[in-house]
């Protein structure tokens, strides 16, 4: 393992305490939102081709390969079918002696990913995807997870603030036939998390075949009480997956697969292909809350209304914004989440704009969901303040630089190819440390930077100060080719001198190709 323990400047602050997402006040949010995603060509006109070009020409995208245009064999045209939106089942836990237990089985199965063709898939407790879990802040949860995949796996609780041994990273991979039973107290505030595999070299393979599910964290905050929370009625999950599938139904996950022929790049919403199908949902209440997850391996998903109207965004990856923000689009890189509400007196169609994130992928605009307004109630106004977010004053934070790079067909962090625990770079920090990291993209490829353990604030995005919803809390954020972001965080609650957290690109192919490093938090 390549150790990287020395910061570039500054000094850490060592203060133990409960998990808190606040710091020294710098400024407050504004309600404005910076748009980050352009509209694509109309529905399913797949260009399949160029990922977002970054700050420099895509032609410099690396010596090993460049972004490729897709063969124009995918369908084009308006949706010809409708189907009712499928909402993932809610997994009921059993509570005894103060602990709520959930039971999951990672298993193989089959499903139609492209119409009329059966694909080999995987899921939790079912053939494809997994049920939604609800956790409550302050509760203790126990998860009994059995591996029936025929190969090693892990289950990572993406965005959760849990001990490193319970985080589901590569160090706790467990074999076929074994059951892993992590247990911990839920310290997170209300937010949308998700769970998925995280073993070395197989994350993309297992995730694209369907191993993904949502986690809803609830709390007793007044904002939570003011927002829709009746799961499946006015609190609706939307899980987006843009996959690569050949005509025989084989789901691709690595470079050789993506460079093969006869590929389709379908967009799935809650497991249903929306290439030529618009889903429908009847909103029986005037206000509906949508929890958005981009579970794609690499492509970027931007959500917008077909009429150009606004949605009210209330949360980012790591929970509520300081105040609700009216936005015309919500851009989600791979692994990212957001929450929004709409008060509807007329029907609305939601669109997903897909932007290729890797060497090939989906591209186009999908009318994926028509929401029929049938509610007759009059909801109260949303709270003027959803939560207090104190912006960090980073003047005395420890500074580090994390460089995202490429070496031939391998990806790197700080020059190390992280395909094994021994080979990857390791960041060492201490409990209570407050740090500011510059995440530099030394490639011309798209990256999605994810940090385990603690949330971060965006301090700078390609040299500009964040505005609007960018002032929320994140754990996954876009780093465009040739660009950089600065993020700030505080390491709280958990230490371990054996088990580590991960930091990596959430383009799952990049992760498997080595763009991953470890993070060890020890006592100060």
How confident is the prediction overall: mean pLDDT? 89
**Basic shape:** globular
Report the portion of residues in β strands: 35-45%
Query: What kind of sheet is the major sheet?
Result: 7 strands, mixed
Q: Radius of gyration over alpha carbons? A: 21 Å
Unreliable spans are 1-66, 69-77
- Order of strands side by side in the largest beta sheet? 18-17-13-20-25-22-23
Supply the helix-strand structural class: mainly beta
Gap between N and C termini? 22 Å
* Helix share, percent: under 10%
Individual helix count: 4
Overall description:
Mean pLDDT is 89; it is low at 1-66 and 69-77. The protein is globular and about 55 Å long. Helix content is 4%, strand content 41%. It is built from four helices and 38 strands. A hairpin with a 2-residue loop joins strand 17 (267-269) and strand 18 (272-273). The protein is mainly beta and 524 residues long. The protein has a seven-stranded mixed beta sheet with strand order 18-17-13-20-25-22-23, with no helix packed on it. Strands 1-30-38-37-32-35 form a six-stranded mixed beta sheet. Strands 2-19-27-26-21-24 form a six-stranded mixed beta sheet, with no helix packed on it.
Give structural attributes.
six-stranded mixed beta sheet; disordered N terminus; 524 residues
Question: What layout of secondary structure does this protein have?
Answer:
Blueprint: E1 2-4, E2 81-84, E3 94-96, E4 99-114, E5 117-124, E6 133-136, E7 140-148, E8 156-158, E9 179-180, E10 183-185, E11 191-196, H1 203-208, E12 213-218, H2 222-226, E13 235-242, E14 244-246, E15 251-252, H3 255-258, E16 263-264, E17 267-269, E18 272-273, E19 277-283, E20 287-294, E21 300-305, E22 311-316, E23 319-327, E24 329-332, E25 337-343, E26 348-355, E27 364-373, E28 398-407, E29 410-413, E30 425-430, E31 434-441, E32 447-451, E33 456-461, E34 473-474, E35 476-479, E36 484-490, E37 501-505, H4 508-512, E38 516-522
